[in-house]
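Appendix B, Record 12. Input sequence as logged:
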Amino acid sequence: MPDDAVKAEKGQIPTNLRLLLILEEVAQAGTPVSASALSDALGLPKPTVHRLLATAEDEGFLVRDIDGRSYGPGHRLRRLASNTFSSQRVRAERLMIMTALAEEVEETCNLAAPGRYGMVYLDRVETHWPLRIQLPVGTQVPFHCTASGKMFLSSLRSDRLDRYLDWLTLSKETDRTITDPDQLREEVAAIRGRGFATDNEEFMEGMTAVAAPITDAQGRLMTTLSIHAPLQRHGVDDLIMMLPQLKAATERMRRLLND
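Logged structural output:
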């Protein structure tokens, strides 16, 4: 919620601050927000909120949810968050954390954030081994068959997950890809219970991965940190043995991002 000094009285928010507060409210909510909820939260007239939402949608800062009434972050707001997240000091420190993890486990580490159509790699630290999986920064990978993507799906409320599964195309990337929605729901429920996700050649033949969440101060998933390896070096069970190191790195990352 905005500071009380800013919110103060209905209609007293400066005109040039209103759209920023709407974007802040949507970003803080973590789920799509309706115009009515924004009007109540900010004390702004509904016609004003609808007008500002339309502007933000037209410019790509917000996107209408599949219910047609609520709004979530658009590609420009996500890019703004990513650029802020990648500020020089923060990025330098998070790369230090990722580098330390990669050196400790001797495998590639990836930092990924949810985008509109899949998980987007924000940073990557390569292993020293000549045999490695090539997934450069900026790569977008599916939600349903990657460790980071399934970790994100596990962070959604059940009703939100159902809507995602209605919308997602569960493409068969390999023979191990889960393409049945009910089976994927079972997998996501198991991930919620154990707190980490795996990819056992589900996205790419010969590649395994394990991912853990990095959360904000409210415990909501912001990004994921993953360890990737060719099957020739590590199966999924081997990567699960690296969870203590992975979770220690995610905790250091969480403290860095929430300072």
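The chain has two domains: 4-78, 86-258.
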